[in-house]
UniProtKB/TrEMBL annotation:
Matches recorded under PANTHER family: ENDO-BETA-1,6-GALACTANASE (PTHR42767), ENDO-BETA-1,6-GALACTANASE-LIKE DOMAIN-CONTAINING PROTEIN (PTHR42767:SF1)
InterPro entries documented for this protein: 6GAL-like, 6GAL/EXGAL, GH, Glyco_hydro_b
Domain Endo-beta-1,6-galactanase-like intervals: 18-240
SUPFAM superfamilies: (Trans)glycosidases (SSF51445)
GO MF annotation terms: hydrolase activity, hydrolyzing O-glycosyl compounds
Pfam family, one: Glyco_hydr_30_2
Name of this protein: Endo-beta-1,6-galactanase-like domain-containing protein
Amino acid sequence: MSNSKGRDEQLVFKGDPILIDPHDRYDNFEGWGTSLAWWAHIIGQWKDEEKMNEVIELIFDERKGLGLNIVRYNIGGGENPQIVPNTLRPGGDVPGFQPEKGKWDWEADKGQRKVLLASFEHGVTIAEAFSNSPPYWMTKSGSVTGAEDGGNNLKDEYYAGFADYLTEVVRFYKEKHGVTFRTLNPLNEPASAWWIKGNIQEGAHFSLDKQMEIIDKVAQSLQKKGLQDTTISAPDENSIDETVEMLRGYDEGTIDNLAQINTHSYNGSQLEELRKFAVEKDKRLWMSEYGTGGTESHNHNDMTSVMELAERIIFDLHMLRPAAWVYWQAVEDEGAKNNWGFIHSDFRGKESYELTKQYYAMANFSRFIRPGSSIIHTNHGRSIAAYDQKKKQLTIVVRNEYSQQEFEYDLDAFQFETRLAEVYETTLQKDLKRSELSIYKNGFKITLDEQSVTTIVIPNVEMK
């Protein structure tokens, strides 16, 4: 509902409003992303290219979709063909480029490659390569799913060979396809002990000393091959606290080899400690993986996963202050019967897809908080703000998991002539539904539905 007097009137706050203070911010947010494992391996092989392109646009296109601009490409290890039946989940059997020692297959992984290359045509600007496991023939167990006991699975004599494998893939993409991976991560949740042979996905444990060894070997290999445009990220631990523990255990040489610190944020409490460590060591910090499925049974309109997603994003942006925030799989397997992901498709069925409620909730953030923005902290744990200097646009995203209630925002630190803001709501009944809101000279008030994620976009704004 509009109010033509809003621009000139002062809003009389009923209580203590939520303060948007542009001086409490961090700059140069790089954007939002997704890993391509495992969905791109499946969808990139669809015969219906029109349907495939629809999915790609829904994920990467800024106008038609989520506008994700970061991809993490999974360099597959390739499972042992003698293991029958193959235990890897649908999509998880990403082909390796070296099916046996001394043999290379550069035609491998066509599905993921097709999506990777198409993603750049739809807005992707940053690509990272990462590994879940070495090729099976380099492992102690003979499988990319993990060691027999959950311990180190890469044979001691293959650390240099594994580094060579990863950097050869990086060089192949650069020379053959014109793709420069800005970072290369040889690890994925390496401290975890659940990478045991027979898993449904690739995985490899690396103890602290072995993490340092493979990072050193990769650094040497990149330098030897003249791949100076690709640097190393690590350690991609499952939790914030594990990431801090590993980093504190690394020697200075290992830290020097890192250009970027990657962490997953499934759990952990040391967000501020990790942020301070990254600042102290002058390293870029990414939240490189998070995903959620909520607490309800399989349902595309599930709101519990929406609330968890919004809570995690807002909390991470407040406390961790990452340069980028990356979801795990944008597309999940419908056959898994869970609520993870923004889009569901039956990885073993027909070439079709459906959007989940998480898709719209992600759009509340990614479509409006764009790369290059400054992330502004608030005195309200359920609200985050961003200012786009180029667009002169202020964006506020708030979640409300409780009953319907009114929120008030103090914008006295900004100067604007705008009378109306755009509002986009995601609730059980609404999918990013657009409306308008009156803006006063010093702020605004808004009534939020229960179980909602709401984005308020204010144009033509200047910081005082």
